[in-house]
Structures are given as C-alpha cells and as structure tokens.
Automatic annotation (TrEMBL):
Cross-referenced InterPro entries: His_Pase_superF_clade-1 (IPR013078), His_PPase_superfam (IPR029033), PG/BPGM_mutase_AS (IPR001345), Phosphogly_mut1 (IPR005952)
PROSITE patterns recorded: PG_MUTASE
UniProt cross-references to SMART domains, sorted A to Z: PGAM (SM00855)
Gene name in the database record: gpmA
Species of provenance: Microvirga alba
Organismal lineage: Bacteria, Pseudomonadati, Pseudomonadota, Alphaproteobacteria, Hyphomicrobiales
Keyword terms, alphabetized: Gluconeogenesis, Glycolysis, Isomerase
Protein name stated in the entry: 2,3-bisphosphoglycerate-dependent phosphoglycerate mutase
Length: 206
C-alpha cells in the first residue's frame, strides 16, 4: 500500500477500567489492554503491513501499545518518535475523578457538555477544539509529509488526539465529531490519495 497511515488508540488502561478521567495522567495498561494491543499487531501482520516509522505520545499507555504492536509485526526496533502534541486531551480539574462522582458534583448536563461538546473545556483543561488545534499542526508539518513521500506510518495515541486526525481524514465537523468514538486497540488503516484525501479506510475490528 502506498501512502499508508495507521491510527491506533492505546489498549485499555487501568483508569479506563476504573471509569476515571485520565487526560495527561499516566496510568499503565491493564492485562486486557496489553492483549488488545497485541491483537491489533496481529491483525496488521495478517494484512502484511510493515512500517517505516512510528509516532506516539509522551504517555506510557500509548508508548507501550505502540511497542506491543511493533513486536507483533516483527519490527521491535522501528524508529519511534514520541511527541507531546499527540497526548490525550487534558481534562484539567476532572483528571483522576470518577465520571459518576463528577456527575454527582457538577450534574449530568454539565459533565456531558464538558465531555461531548466540541468547544467547551472542563475547568483547567482542553476542549476537543483545543486538542485539534494542538494535534493538527503537528500532523500537517511532521506526519503527513512522510506519508505523502510514500512512507508507511503508524500513529499510536489516544481517543481524542486521534479523533482530531479522523475529523480531517473523514471530513467530520464540530457537530459530528463529538459523537464519534474510537475503540481501544482497534487500528484504522488509511491509504491516502496524492492530494492527501482518503483513498480507502479499513477498521480492523476483532
């Protein structure tokens, strides 16, 4: 495949399991999360996919997911670039709180607004719009040029940082992106046209 871009959300983390807002906090993967990452690698290997470079965030759950995928496809020493711009959305004052406790404190409607609106940030944190503003310039300046040169690129990151990329690739907007979910450990395989738009997309579900 030419101009290959694969996006993979990290496997389940300890805080995903505990229903906590995570953001820039740094919990590790659960046993299930490790298996999700390995299974993602096996599904990519089954398609014969190899990479020229990998990108991941500054957070360990994404980094370990990236490494487990590379181990499974037989590229454990692939050049991997770690970049804070690919970090999860910063949930600010919500970070570390149980989502049910947050609803009890601020109310269902307010927490839903913080979680699902495009441009309303939680206290001290980032909205999805803020996350897009951080992720997209890095994608355009660093990742996309490599894809367009014909390199095969893996990006292992987070639900919201990857939604910023999916928003552009899938032509979603501020109304449609908030309801779009990315499953843990499920790679999205894109092939791009020579004008940077999407030629094909595969969702490698289990």
């Amino acid at each position: 495949m030419k101009r290959l871009l694969v996006l993979a959300r990290h496997g389940q983390s300890d805080w995903n399991l505990k229903n906590l807002f995570t953001g820039w906090k740094d919990p590790g993967l659960t046993d299930l999360g490790v298996e999700e990452a390995r299974a993602a690698g096996r599904r990519l290997k089954a398609l014969g996919i190899q990479f020229d470079v990998a990108y991941t965030s500054d957070l360990s759950r994404a980094q370990r997911t990236c490494q487990l995928i590379l181990d499974e496809i037989g590229q454990p020493n692939l050049t991997t670039i770690k970049e804070q711009a690919l970090n999860e959305r910063d949930y600010g004052d919500l970070s570390g709180l149980n989502k049910d406790d947050a609803r009890a404190k601020w109310g269902e409607d307010q927490v839903h607004l913080w979680r699902r609106s495009y441009d309303v940030p939680p206290p001290g944190g980032e909205s999805l719009k803020d996350t897009v503003a951080r992720v997209l310039p890095y994608y355009v300046s660093e990742i996309l040029p490599r894809v367009m040169r014909g390199e095969r690129v893996l990006v292992a990151a987070h639900g919201n940082s990857l939604r910023a990329l999916v928003m552009v690739l899938d032509h979603l907007n501020a109304d449609t992106i908030p309801s779009m979910e990315l499953a843990t450990g499920v790679p999205l395989v894109y092939e791009l046209k020579d004008d940077t738009t999407v030629a094909s997309k595969k969702v490698l579900e289990a």
